[in-house]
Here is the input.
Amino acid sequence: MQTRADLAHSEVVALVKKLAHDQHSAALAQLASRIAVVAKYGGRGGADPFEKIKSMISEMVEKLERQAASEATEKSYCDEQVAKTEAKKDELDFDVNKLVNKIQQAAARSAELKDESKLLHEEVALGAKTVAELLKVRRKEHVNYLSGKGELEQGMAGVQKALGLLRDYYGTAASMIQEAAGSGASLEQPAKPQQHSKADGAGANIIGILEVCESDFANGLSKEESEEADAEEEYQKVVQDKKISKMALDSDLKYKQQQRVSLQKTISELTSDKENLNRELSAVLQYYARVKDRCIAKPDTYEGRRARREAELSGLREAISIIESQAAFMQKTRRIRGGVIASR
Here is the structure.
């Protein structure tokens, strides 16, 4: 190096090369090579190599500043889009999960109603079976009642007929004796045979026994009729209770069926809403993937690139400062030399 200018050129080239090495920049390495060529040959023909080198470095600075502004704009866009997309994704995830919970709750309630309806159907069937069995028993009881009543009535009729005959017979004999006594018959009339006296006692006993039998038949018939009436009343009461119970069960079944229909409609609507949200979520996820590919899925971060660019700009501005200082020095030197020549 023979001059101060050569030293300045060398310092600038070394500075730019170091920047290129430190920041792994092929563009700066290429710039350093171009600066070295201009520094070596740019002064031929009276040209000012400093202006050329300054222009080259300034162009690189402007290029880096444009890149920095573009990346800053891109960074702002990416931050905004990532934030909006993630917020929308979270919102859709929340809405989908909310719908899923509602669908699950509705399905669980529908299943409960199905089980409850099954139990009600079983209860209705059991009630119908009970009524059928009661009717069967009641019919059998009524047949037995009719049979027993017929036998009692037949027996009582027989006793009553026998009593009628006996009463007629013994009543006629007693009447004949009383008529004979009252007609003033001869004392020489033969006395009543002894067997008639005994027959009167026997007849009274038989009549008494038959009257007891008649009373027993009457009591038995009354008891049968009373039991039949009680059994019929109890049967009708149970049947009426079963009818009321069945009406309540049928009403409950109808209500539960309406609830199930309503729930199935709700589940269908919620499922449709969920499918719409899932389609929207799928579109958001696809867009989010593109955003991440553009903004996130890069080997180098924005912060790293910005730090390197700032270092490059700082170094290049320092190189420009060196060039400008050297250019100012040379201009000053020329003015001094020009003044000396003029004074001569």
